[in-house]
Design brief:
Blueprint: H1 2-16, H2 18-21, H3 28-31, H4 35-39, H5 49-62, H6 65-79, H7 96-100, H8 106-121, H9 123-264, H10 278-302, H11 307-354, H12 386-405, H13 407-411, H14 415-433, H15 440-454, E1 459-461, E2 464-466, H16 474-496, H17 501-514, H18 516-529, H19 546-552, E3 557-558, E4 561-562, H20 565-582, H21 600-611, H22 619-639, H23 641-661, H24 667-683
Helix pairs in contact: 1-5, 5-9, 6-9, 9-10, 9-11, 10-11, 12-18, 14-15, 14-16, 15-17, 16-17, 16-18, 16-20, 17-18, 17-20, 20-22, 21-22, 22-23, 22-24, 23-24
Length: about 700
């Protein structure tokens, strides 16, 4: 279209004009931007210029020229309104007179002359700019109105949404409260239902409880009746057991009394005329005494004797009575025979005296009686040899004299003396308790401390200096307590740990060699606690209390209760092991020129004497095993062939005697001894005992 071409020409003319090259904005003062910077940039048309050219200018060209002037004037007047649109920097013709009145004078006039034709020439541009501004104003007003309406609409929506949210919140609160009430009501119903069920269950449990209580009461009554019945039965059983026990003690006393009568038969006259073997009778009497003693020991362990035990004891008593009766009958018969022989001899003598002629015919005396098969029986002795008994009594007298020597120290009430006594006892016993097989140097330190104490030198004990010179009786007291402690270690420590016998024994042997009195006191304590180390079997004397006799045998009796057989054998075993270790060991740092104060010859004597005595059930086998296991290797090296002969004697002659008096429940110690000797005979060697101290021990 021609009009479109003109529009673009107009726009091109506007861009080429001086004002077109200017960059200005109506609100530049409000923006506060630097005007000079905007002037340096290229001129830009409004974003609405294209729309004005396309829509406004074609309609303006269709209007007559008369209207064109009026429109331009209206637009100009409208554009000149300061309240609507800011003023254009391009001056209009109406404002030229006022501008000419500026103090510039001729320069303003000259400028107006030059710009007036330009304004006249660009009136079309002014019109376009006015239209653009009008459109911008109208568009801004429409936008402002639309924004205001939109804001009002949004505010109405916000108020509506707020009211709706409030209503929904109220409904939500109402529904929540309603749900809460419903849940509370359901919970109450559940609780009431649970309560009713619990009450019902409780009533049911109460009913069951009452039923069970009735059943339990019935059971309790039955149990109480049963307990009373059992208590009554137990009481009756105890009474019967005590009666049987008293009966056993009475039987034992009678058997011992009858055995004494058998022993006294040795002194009966005309013993050579008896056809009975008195030694066999005495042996059988000793076996019967041992049988009853074994029953009483087993009874003390198990409670009360049974009827079978009592029957066995009664049979043994009856047999003992039969033995004594047969002996008395035989003695009476022998006396009668002797009387007849004497009468016949006297008659023959009278007849011979009447004869005047004829040779005298001598008559031979009858031969002594022999056992069955024409062989005279040999029997083992029951009593210890007189020399051994004298030695035993001398040691006990020496121990008693030692006790009397420090009696004043023991019974003193002075606190200072009591303190000295306590310190001396600790100094004597604590080192013995510390003896162990840890190292030879430690053992030598303990030995030196004991030797120093016995030598009168001060030693440290409990942070204080202790010496036997603090009291005149101090040495006797220390020697006695030291010996007592050595034996107690054998009774307790060696009994529990067999290897401990060797370190304790070697220290005791060294002290014995330097202080012989301590060795004698060790033997006295050992013989008193373990009479089998003599060896010595104490005899029951008439009028002696049974508890005193059991103490003499080595049993511990507390509150009229005898210790159990296992514990008794354990203690005896520990002391015999200590004795067997002492007789073969010597202190390695002592003098080798002197002999052992109590050497292997005493061990050989002990072994020979115990084999010459009647064995005791369960005791002899235990002590023989312990002695040979500890000391057998040393005796084998010392006595060689003679030792093996004695071992064969034990196997062939002594084993049957032990087995004859050992009950089936006490065969353990006998079997152990038998297996040990059979193994040694098979290997032809007694093994070195476990725990024996070798030469390497003293280098540690």
């Amino acid at each position: 279209m021609p009009s479109e071409g003109r529009c673009w020409e107009t726009l091109q003319a506007l861009r080429s004009s001086e004002k077109g090259r200017l960059c200005y904005h109506r609100d530049w003062l409000l923006r506060g931007e630097n005007v000079l910077e905007e002037c340096m940039s290229l001129p830009k048309l409004s974003s609405y210029s294209g729309w004005v050219v396309d829509h406004v200018l074609p309609h303006a060209q269709e209007n007559p020229p008369s209207s064109e002037t009026s429109a331009s004037s209206r637009s100009a007047s409208a554009l000149d309104q300061p309240s609507c649109v800011p003023r254009s920097p391009v001056r209009t013709p109406a404002s030229s007179p006022s501008s000419s009145a500026t103090p510039d004078g001729p320069e303003g006039k000259h400028e107006s002359r030059h710009t007036e034709p330009m304004v006249l020439q660009s009136s079309r541009g002014i019109q376009v700019e006015g239209c653009i501004r009008m459109y911008e104003l109208v568009h801004r007003m429409r936008g402002t109105e639309g924004l205001r309406q939109w804001q009002e609409e949004q505010e109405r929506k916000v108020r509506a949404l707020s009211e709706m949210a409030c209503e929904q919140l109220k409904r939500f609160d109402e529904r929540k409260e309603l749900q809460h009430h419903k849940e509370l009501r359901d919970f109450r119903e559940v609780m009431e239902k649970s309560s009713r069920e619990a009450l019902g269950h409780q009533e049911k449990l109460k009913a069951e409880h009452r039923h069970r209580a009735k059943i339990l009461n019935l059971k309790l009554r039955e149990a109480e009746q049963q307990r009373l019945k059992q208590a009554e039965q137990e009481r009756l059983r105890k009474e019967e057991g005590q009666a049987r026990l008293r009966s056993l003690y009475a039987l034992q006393e009678e058997v011992l009394h009858l055995n004494q009568q058998l022993d006294a038969s040795e002194t009966q006259p005309h013993g050579d005329l008896l056809k009975l073997d008195l030694a066999a009778l005495r042996t059988r009497g000793n076996q019967l005494c041992g049988l009853i003693s074994g029953i009483i020991r087993a009874t003390s362990e198990n409670g009360f004797p049974t009827e079978e035990d009592q029957a066995v004891a009664e049979r043994a008593l009856q047999e003992m009575r039969d033995l004594l009766t047969s002996l008395q009958q035989e003695i009476a018969r022998a006396c009668e025979n002797k009387r007849k022989q004497d009468e016949e001899a006297a008659r023959e003598k009278r007849q011979g005296s009447k004869m005047q002629q004829g040779p005298e015919v001598p008559r031979e005396a009858p031969a002594p009686s022999q056992g069955p098969g024409g062989k005279q029986n040999e029997d083992l002795q029951v009593k210890v040899q007189d020399s051994t008994m004298q030695w035993y009594q001398q040691l006990q007298d020496a121990s008693s004299q030692c006790v009397l020597a420090f009696e004043e120290l023991t019974n003193s009430k002075d606190s200072q003396v009591k303190k000295i006594k306590m310190d001396l006892q600790k100094a004597a016993t604590i080192p013995v308790s510390q003896i162990s097989a840890i190292a030879g140097s430690k053992l030598k330190e303990i030995f030196d401390k004991i030797h120093s104490l016995l030598s009168g030198k001060p030693v440290q004990c409990g942070g204080r200096s202790v010496s036997v010179t603090l009291n005149p009786q101090g040495l006797d007291f220390v020697q006695y307590k030291l010996a007592e402690k050595f034996v107690k270690q054998g009774e307790e420590e060696v009994a529990s740990h067999h290897e401990a016998a060797f370190p304790i024994a070697i220290v005791a042997s060294g002290i014995w060699e330097l202080h012989p009195r301590v060795g004698d006191l060790i033997l006295a304590h050992l013989h008193r606690k373990c009479p089998y180390s003599v060896p010595f079997y104490p005899a029951f004397k008439e009028g002696m209390a049974l508890e005193d006799y059991q103490r003499m045998l080595g049993y511990q009796v507390k509150d009229s209760k005898v210790e159990q057989q296992d514990n008794f054998l354990k203690r005896m075993s520990g002391m015999i092991r200590l004795y067997a270790a002492i007789i073969q060991l010597r202190w390695p740092y002592g003098s080798r020129q002197e002999i052992h104060p109590h050497g292997l010859n005493h061990g050989w004597r002990w072994l020979a004497q115990i084999l010459n005595m009647e064995p005791l059930s369960d005791v002899t086998a235990t002590l023989l095993f312990d002695f040979l296991e500890v000391c057998g290797n040393a005796l084998m090296k010392q006595y060689q062939v003679q030792f093996w002969k004695m071992i064969l004697l034990i196997k062939e002659d002594y084993f049957p005697r032990i087995e004859a008096i050992t009950s089936s429940g006490q065969m353990g110690s006998f079997i152990r001894l038998k297996q040990f000797l059979e193994k040694c005979l098979q290997r032809k060697e007694i093994p070195v005992p476990k725990g024996f101290l070798t030469s390497s021990f003293w280098r540690s």
